[in-house]
């Protein structure tokens, strides 16, 4: 295996942070930090940080007084996100969500399976599958 571990995780691909205004956040990341923008829109701003990793700011209508509801996510890339989810379930990992569709078109569907580490830090497994392989009901069976 060429990845970072034996469960199917290939590496870190993205850190997602919440922002009141991603377009305003873009000025900080692009203009002050000098990061190359991959996408900037009203609800999403994403910047390359190198090595295939990006930082993204996504809109939240209400930034809470405490960040509990708007914590950053560490997003781990997986070539086989469903297989990795199943292997980790078998190892006893508890997931917040099974793999669910987070983006896609007629050819490719992106899936995310979310979990927390023992300290409550949020992680997400992210990968894509051919859209034709998405179950009709969108729900993957554990095994």
Structural class: mainly beta
Quaternary class: single chain
- The CATH level-2 architecture of the largest domain is identified as 2-Layer Sandwich
Q: What is the average of the pLDDT values? A: 87
Question: How many domains, as an integer?
Answer: 2
How many H/I helices?
A: 2
> Termini, distance in Å?
22 Å
The name CATH uses for the topology of the largest domain is Signal recognition particle alu RNA binding heterodimer, srp9/1
Radius of gyration: 16 Å
Indicate the percent of residues in helices: 10-25%
Which segments are poorly predicted (pLDDT under 50) over 5 or more consecutive residues? none
How many DSSP-defined strands?
Answer: 8
What is the percentage of strand-forming residues? 35-45%
What CATH first level of the largest domain would be assigned? Answer: Alpha Beta
How would a crystallographer describe the biggest sheet?
8 strands, mixed
């Amino acid at each position: 295996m060429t990845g970072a571990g034996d469960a199917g995780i290939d590496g870190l691909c993205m850190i997602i942070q919440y922002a009141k205004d991603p377009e305003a956040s873009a000025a900080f990341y692009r203009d002050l930090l000098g990061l190359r923008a991959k996408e900037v829109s009203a609800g999403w701003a994403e910047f390359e940080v190198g090595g295939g990793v990006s930082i993204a700011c996504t809109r939240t209508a209400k930034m809470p007084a405490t960040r509990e509801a708007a914590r950053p996510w560490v997003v781990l890339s997986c070539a086989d996100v469903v297989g990795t989810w199943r292997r980790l379930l078998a190892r006893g990992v508890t997931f917040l969500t099974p793999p669910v569709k987070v983006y896609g078109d007629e050819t490719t569907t992106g899936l995310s399976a979310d979990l927390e580490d023992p300290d409550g830090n949020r992680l997400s497994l992210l990968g894509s599958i051919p859209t034709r392989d998405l179950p009709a009901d969108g729900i993957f069976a554990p095994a």
